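Two proteins were folded this term; both appear here.
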Amino acid sequence: MPDTNDQDSAISFGAFRLFPRSRLLEKDGVPLHLGGRALDILIFLAERAGEVVDKRELVKRVWADVNVDEGSLRFHITSLRKALGDAGEGSRYVVNVPGRGYCFTAPLLRAAPAEIRTGAVVSALRSLPAPLAKMIGRDDAVEKIGAELSLHRFVTIVGPGGIGKTSVALAVAHGQYAAFDGQVCFVDFGALTDPQLVPGTIAAALGLTVSSDDPLPGLLQSLRSRPMLLVFDSCEHIIDELAPLAERIVREAPELHILTTSRESFRTEGERVYRLFPLDCPPQRDGLSMADVLAYPASQLFVERIAESLSEFELSEEDAPLVADICRRLDGIALAIELAAGRVNAYGIAGTASLLDSRFSLLWRGRRTAIPRHQTLSAALSWSYDLLPVAESATLRGLSIFVGPFTLEAALAVAASQSIDEAEAVEAITNLLSKSLIATSPAERRLRYRLLDTTRAFVGDKLVESGESARVARAHAEYFRDFLHNISAKSTGMQSAGGFLPYADHLPNVRAALTWSFSESGDRTVGVDLAASAAQFFLELTLLTECHSWTQQALASADTIDRRKEMALQAAHGVSVMFTQGNAEGVRSAFTRSLQLAEELDDLHWQLWLLRGLHIYLTRVGDFHGALGTGEQGQAVARKLNDPTSTLNVEWMLGVAHHLIGNQDKAVQFCESAMVDNPGSQRLNIGHLGYDDRIVALVALARGLWLSGRPDRAIEAARYTVKEAEQLEQPLTLGISLIWTIYVFLWVGDWTSAESLIERLIDHAARHFLGPYHAVGIGQKGELLLRRGDIAGGIEHLRRSQATLYATRHRIMTTVFATALAEGLAAQNQADEGLRTIDEAIAQIGDHGESFDMPEMLRVKADILVQSARATEAEAWLQQSLALSRRQCARGWELRGAMSLARVWLQAGRKSDAQALLAPIVAHYQEGLSSRDLVAAKGLLSTLN
């Protein structure tokens, strides 16, 4: 604020005038908006005009003790140059000297302040408080409000308590004071308790002598005589009296402008409302760096306020994500952020973050000089809450039960439990929204509402004090029970999926409702019904651990359960256990019991879905013939349904089973249809079984193509499969696509692609808590290490993987890894142990019949026998491998077996027999000629020739 004893001297350059003390920049006499940091840089460079200022010195001056990187400096230099003109003109004033710093190069003219600038404004500025030394994140708001005020004369800044309305209003007022020739008057109504004193309070602020009981006529007469800006602050509690007065002042004083701050709008003629939103906060995502976090105003404010009380403070990379979390949890509310920053001196950043959930955070005190209602969050919220009518305060208390966004229907259901009728509740919610106590939340389909976390914590205490919490919590749980049940009922049995995905933002409320239902003060009957309705919801969102927990509690909580609800609970329990804990026998029991209930209910859609779940389980435990039988049962159900989509999915089930058994021609035949993108079935049941049928069929197709001698098409299908799985954004589906397509790349010898996919699988499984998938990734990494010659590393990875897979009964991969392990042991001259390992794997397949990898196991056993000088035995095993490969139409295994046998015959002097065996197989290949096996086969043929 200008001071008459130490007036502001203007610094002129080009078309610009800079007033450092007033922090004002003019261009051609018109105030120019410039951000706070950019203005600091300009003032400092102008003070040192003609000198090269080191970048570190500039950062230290502008950011004081806050640690920022050079990128922030470059950003604000760019903003400064933009404000001073285009790139060519702006860079004329501020020049970058590479390796040294920046220099202000324009010639300066310093002038004494004009008498008219200060003399006319001294008396008015005495009623205008000083602005914040630095305002963060509000430059755009100040500029827009100033523009609105010029055009429309009456502007109200609306927002919740503590968001910074007063600070913004003061910044606007100071920015406009030259335009109003210093005639700016600030009136703080915060301490006014008698609405009848509103006109007198305005008159007193204007310095008018009031000599009558009614000061209004004299007030209006005075205001008509001159251009002026009136700033009315904290108007919400006297708004009914002030609104008609403000409307009359604007109407009768044509040169007067009014700027007000309030938690709700005046709703008068001519008013323009500017809603002040919270400061932008860093997004919730992994890997945020310190620079990322400090790019957001909320974080900048937090760090700036810490630095004010801790001069040595420097934000670290380790603490930056915590700062981002604090700002998000405080909803970007400036007052809340400042109060939290004030705790860092005592608790540190991590300690402050941990205390945010404590109700005592509402009582943290701020600046001693702050007005009472801004000294704690509780005081700020009490100010608004105490002004509410009874119906609105009761409605607001009830809304505190919601966690995150909620709909109007949900709010009305809760209000009904408080004996508030629908019309009254709708009116209350509308008013609470206008008073900034409820915020709207962006949503794709329908409008959502939410309470800011600080507001929710405050009114949550009020709900407990009122004695209403039990019935409100029950109404909340019953609403979401019915809501989820209705979504499930609208789907066509289990044949349509994705029905829950648009409602994922209700997840926090569903969790809260379940927690209350199964608590000591809750109702387990409601909990069982809610868990049954929520089971599919959790599966569709791939929240498998939560699905397991809640279905387990529900099944254990009731002696008798409605058959349909038990069917849903058992099915979801089986799926969640299978994918998170492994293939325990309890998975089969859950599916079997659920299938029995579906048959009793004669629900064909559920029967088919459960047969598919059982099919997954049987493939995972290695019972491939059992899986084929389940697929054949599914055929019978699909025929009754007479539904093309069901038929298609059953064919895919059969194709996968045939692939795993080893019938590659049938596998390709059944699964080829998956290459046609079918939007109608692409997401079929994805949410309910956790994976997409089409992707699994594509996996079987890609592998079947390589096994049947079409490597290039196999690679094409494998890449297409992963791409399609990525688009579904479904963790289980993507995991399955990675696991099974990795082998296509290993088989063709594209180890670079294989390595990339393996590392991705390991990371993906860890992030989504898919334990068996992680073990598979470790095993595949071991197999790749063997291929690259790291025998010891490969064996170690394979053994780790096998231990986990056996413990979780994830048998589908154990024989594959046992085969690789046997090869590794043989390479370490441990042929006997290698033979024992491969024999155990072959015996394991014997429990369930044939397997797609049996020809390869027989070949590996033969290779180890050759290494042990048992060539005659080896030849017999190789003949078996070749015969089985041909029966399975597995030309990939046949080529490998033929190469092994050709080498045995070559050593025995049977070169012509070896050539006759190998040449026709190689000649059959019309593609993939550069793949590793074919290159090796052609090399061997060259030797034979």
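Next, the second protein.
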Amino acid sequence: MLEPVESRSVSPVFVGRAAELEILNDALARAAAGEPQALVIGGEAGVGKTRLVEEFATAAGQGAAVALGGCVEIGADGLPFAPFSTALRALRRELPGELAAAAAGQEEELARLLPELGETVPTRGADRSDEEGMARLFELTARLLERVAAGRTVVVALEDLHWADASTRHLLAYLFRTLRTGRLVVLATYRSDDIHRRHPLRPLLAELDRLRTVRRIELGRFSRAEVGRQIAGILATEPDPVQVDEIFERSDGNAFFVEELAVAAHEGSCTGLTDSLRDLLLVRVESLPDSAQRVARTVAEGGSTVEYRLLAAVAQLAEDDLIEALRAAVGANILIAAPGDDGYRFRHSLVREAVGDDLLPGERSRLNRRYAEALESDPTLVPAGERVMRLASYWYHAHDPAKALPAVLDASVTARRRHAHSEQLRLLERAMELWDTAPEDIRATLRPVDYAEAYPPCGCDPDTTPLRYLDLMAEAAVAGRLCGERERALKITKRALHLLEDEGDPMRAAWFWVQRSRLTQALARGDGWKELGTAQELVRGLPPSEVHAEVLATAANWSMLRAPGPDAMSAAERAVEYARMVGAEDIELNARLTLGGLMVDAGHIDAGLAQMHEVKEEVLTRGITTVVGRSHVNLPSALEGIGRSQDAVGILREGLRLTQEWGLRDSEAWIWTNLAESLVSLGRWDEAADAAVNAQRTEQSAKPRGGASNSLAHLALARGEVTEAARHLAAARASYGTHDPMPQNNLPMSCLALGTAAAEGRLLDARAEADRVLDAGFPPGTHRYAWPLLLAAAVAESDARAQSLPTAEEGRAAFLQRLFEAVRTLTTGAPLWLAYEKWTRAELDRADGRTATATWSDVVTAFEALERPYELARVRHRLAEALLAVGGDDERARATELLRLTRAAATHLDARPLVDATTHLAERARLALTTAPPPADPADSLGLTTRERDVLRLVSAGRTNRQIAEELFISPKTASVHVSNILGKLGVSGRGEAAAVAHRTGMFAAETLTSGT
């Protein structure tokens, strides 16, 4: 029995494939009638593609000329035009006269495919250019085949396209697109399981999917009955059903595996193949009836859950057949009913992944095409909120650029509108991927007004201006910046500028240079001025336009932050003017914000704030999200700078709500940073620390993290945690980097460095830091940062004198004089700045040995009108010190009260150095600060911090952790940590017991507590 089996490892009986043969025979009949046919047969290795082609070719050869050609694998590439050369050679052998007549006059060109043709006509000289020559060769090849097939049916079969070279793929695509006449069938096969995601054949298959003239045939595995017939053919006898079952199960119906297993079983060899994980997962799936397997594959490609009505539309089965297939899949525990009983999903995601991985590329695209077509015809098949995104995914994976490009762009717009910028970027990158393969007539219908908003139209007619690839790049660059993918966005801008080098479009190039400037700054790789300078040069002399206005506005904003002054003011004013002229609303509003900030810095406080308030209200009324974030960052910053911290906090809280609601993550990080700064000023230090931590968690770019670190360093220094302050300062420096120095960043860091050095007794280092800043000078409009720095330097000198530090004497006079001169140059137009000026002068007097109670009393009066409890406590301490130096009962009594107020504030803030200094001064003066103390706060006796007291108050009112977080502007996790700490300190096990303790101790007796809703 061995000999017959050895000769029959391939069954002499052609098994199955009736449907596929029917399609091929139908194509042959259509071709014989004069309608050229194009077919592509795909299937996994060993599934029987070659056998199918051989059976078809044998039958077709009875009345048609059949030419077979195969691709030859050489590493990753194939021989150029190898299958075409083989096929044409076969045609020349079978139809020599017809081929010669069809090639007459073009033998030299066609000899590139069939060298034999060059023997009849001498060479005429040099080749044409590669581009022209390739196009001509393709056209001549198409016409050659049409002419040969004009009088006789011709079948050209090209096998193993997965090994095809690029030229072969391109020529085949050209043929499929351009064949219009002739009795011709062009058939190609490929091994589908070889076509991985990056396989070069995939673009061709996608292109063929959109051609109506091309039919795709996907060969599936054999059913159990077909495997039985195949084994019977190989063995020449009816096989044992048990053996058939085993071989079918182990081969999964793969014809090649069946052949090998049948021979091995007959020879007594091991009948098993090594089971992989994928095999184990798929074994039950592939044992299902064909219809159930088909449904399983359909569900695998449709998404995590597929609605029943959508599945019915895609599966293309009669309803009874579909129900039976689903019953089989559910009965086998492969599929289960989805929650809500409206659809189906896989019992386990691993099974779905295995089944999905098992789909052939053509099968996957076909399924996605069916999903897309079904969804297009009936949008109600899926929830409305999912339709656009799912349609884009289906069309994209159907490899149909003509349909996928508009769908993906629609989805990108939806993602943008939902502030899902990461998804928007991914979709735009897909759109850029699809762009070149989409038909020109489809691209011509796309309009920037529908899909792109990043690059301004610049006066172009929105109804006729086509969407450009550069428009997509502009959208992607902005989306990348907004979602934090700045590296990808920067690469896109660089590619765009490279593309624009030869286009002569200075306006568009200027726009991309502005984007590159922003990204360079955001990535802390430079200050962006070089890029902005290039943009300004490109638009110089051009008429007003939206891009021109944006360049001016961006330059003005850059200067406001780094080099404020008349030039920045002028640029902002021109930006406002240009933006109004061209109707660029968002640019105008941004420029007005910049202009308002510059006006405040220049001392025109009321007018500048009015401008910024107007912008904030306008953007809220109109819902202009592009300016909402900035208006809620810049206006509070301006208010903070002039000492109106409480007003700033109100706007910042509103900004948090808006930015979180609208997904403006970068603006949210800046708002948290500014909120931390204002809360520090207001003496709400625990809240400030929480805000700073939130800024660091939320940050999208490096600089908000630096600002948060500055606030944390300020708090640590005020609380005597000098090492911690130095750590935060180092973190701030790392966040800001050295490539984009800004006064608003560098001056606070210098102030902290100076204060840290002074706290550690390094007076000379403190002087060196101050000297470095004074050498550089204070740019116009930076007095809000300059005053604290000068004050810190003056305090360091006055404390050094009071402590009689030996290093303080040398150089003191010259340094103090330098500080005096700097004080005279700074603006005092705001009450806060005036208070700083009085305080700084008083410290300089103290450093020079002069202390006057009237001077310090004036300073205290100035700060009593402000919302600066820590600063007020410090100057009260100084006034008490001056009063005690004078002596007298009235002065001592007044000093005692001042020190009591100072210690109370310092204790509340946990400002330990100030508490210690106050206690030490009282002890030296023999003052009793504990006389008739105010009633003790029960929270203090229980060891609760100020923030924990706030949390306990809300716990007692019945608030949840989330409600506590919202009211105190902290995260729910932080609220949970505070509650846990409170329970531990109170020694209770639950929130109710904690509330009872608070009630029993009268902690909130004077407060009205209401339950949360």
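The mean pLDDT is 84. The longest strand covers residues 184-191. These notes refer to the second protein only.
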